[in-house]
């Protein structure tokens, strides 16, 4: 797969820059920034993006743009593999878009579609690598590779490993319409299934046991003898 990396010292958000590039009809571009001044997560939540982290967005023009959740899954698989290889840490995936270590968030993924004459997808990946500390609001919930391992990491190496793994899944499974393959690999790294979870949905809170993942990446939760499909949202798990 041919791709280009555009590296910036500082951007508002790598997602914004990738959106700008999509208007120029570019794709297979990876936008990287050392610092983001307006990094964001889902629902416009703030994403802390100081120096030391890996902040990047992958701009794609997939053959089809259904089941974007599967691209979030592909990115989380790639991140977990890179963390395990480069840091020797047993990181796992928390549905739908987090990579964590012992319940502390190491990485968040944000997948956004841009639909028009051509359809684009931007997969944003934020991984805490070499930060020493975090702002108050996430101090108890976030972790960095450095904070856990007490050493510095080569961010470029971690990034390249993520890119290679991601494009492997994207080309061989996503674009070839093999969702089951992606879900199978993803399940191997996800430790949400089998746990008691509470999901915050638009219709309120649902508590129950996470029993599985559907073909489109939704979480199945068994609550009071009924199985409910959670398409998107946040879940809390007690580790
Ligand atoms: C996410 O959102 O987890 C997706 C984050 C995606 C960030 C990348 S960085 C490159 C690209 N450019 C962007 O502007 N974004 C993408 P969500 O599931 O909504 O989680 C957001 C929540 O995570 C916040 O409300 C905080 O509680 C927490 N948080 C913020 N910054 C964090 C950090 N650096 N590490 C861990 N948790 C953080």
Description:
- This protein has 239 residues and is of the alpha+beta class.
- It has two domains: 4-189, Bira Bifunctional Protein, Domain 2 (BirA Bifunctional Protein, domain 2, 2-Layer Sandwich); 196-238, SH3 type barrels, CATH 2.30.30.
- The protein contains five helices and twelve strands.
- It has a seven-stranded mixed sheet with strand order 1-2-3-7-6-5-4, sandwiched between helices.
- Helix 2 packs antiparallel against helix 4 (155-174) and helix 2 (69-87) packs across helix 5.
- The longest helix is centred in the C-terminal third of the chain and has 20 residues, at 155-174.
- It is globular, with a radius of gyration of 17 Å.
- Biotinyl-5-AMP binds next to helix 1, strand 3, strand 6 and strand 7.
């Amino acid at each position: 797969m041919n791709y280009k990396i555009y590296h910036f010292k500082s951007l508002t958000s790598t997602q914004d820059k990738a959106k700008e590039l999509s208007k120029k009809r570019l794709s297979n571009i990876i936008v990287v920034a050392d610092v983001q001044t307006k990094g964001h997560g889902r629902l416009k939540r703030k994403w802390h993006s100081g120096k030391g982290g890996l902040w990047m967005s992958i701009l794609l023009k997939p053959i089809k743009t259904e089941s974007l959740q599967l691209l979030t899954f592909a990115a989380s698989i790639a991140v977990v593999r890179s963390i395990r290889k480069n840091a020797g840490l047993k990181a796992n995936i928390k549905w739908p878009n987090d990579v964590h270590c012992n319940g502390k968030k190491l990485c968040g993924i944000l997948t956004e579609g841009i639909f028009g004459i051509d359809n684009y997808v931007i997969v944003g990946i934020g991984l805490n690598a070499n930060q020493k500390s975090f702002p108050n609001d996430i101090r108890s919930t976030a972790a960095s590779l450095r904070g856990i391992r007490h050493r510095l990491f080569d961010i470029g190496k971690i990034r390249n490993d993520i890119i290679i793994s991601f494009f492997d899944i994207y080309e061989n499974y996503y674009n070839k319409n093999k969702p089951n393959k992606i879900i199978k690999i993803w399940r191997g790294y996800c430790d949400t299934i089998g746990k008691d979870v509470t999901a915050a949905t638009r219709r309120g809170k649902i508590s129950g046991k996470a029993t599985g993942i559907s073909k489109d990446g939704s979480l199945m939760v068994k609550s009071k003898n009924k199985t409910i499909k959670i398409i998107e949202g946040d879940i809390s798990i007690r580790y």
